[in-house]
Amino acid sequence: MARMRAVSFSLAVAGLACAIAAAAPAPDRVQFPNLNLIDAKGGVQPLKATLGRATVLNFWATWCGPCRIELPELQELYNELGGKGLVTLAINVDSPRPHVDPFLKRNNLSLPVFFLEPEAEATLGIRSLPTTVLLDAEGKVVNVWGGYSPESMREIRAQAEGLVAQPRGRGGK
Known about the structure:
single chain, alpha/beta, Glutaredoxin, 7-stranded mixed beta sheet, 5 helices, globular
């Protein structure tokens, strides 16, 4: 079973801040750290490249049972709202990486999958998988969900739909 590295920055703390920030006006939201993401070919893309659009970040692993349930639902979200501006990124915390491509093919998943650089992985404290983070167009945290439930997927969808309905911010692509 893959293991996650010990981390310093706690998404649990960010989650608490997010719960407060979700009810507050957008300027009070917490900025999500700018991570460098690694694509399947080893190329590096900064997370800030997606700013200007609402973004769903899903941290997952192939061995995670709840992730296996949630990923197809995120694929549907990606299919339905991607054309409206929602960015959906599946960020794998597995090792070894060779297990990921066969998993994606077996499960008919085509949403963008990235990996974290080891130093970036050390900045997040993911306490449960899956962990899903919804960012606004400025890269500020709207909400954080730890684990999977049908209710949390409904919340993710509703909040994402609300964000894509808002005018687009600056930046990003």
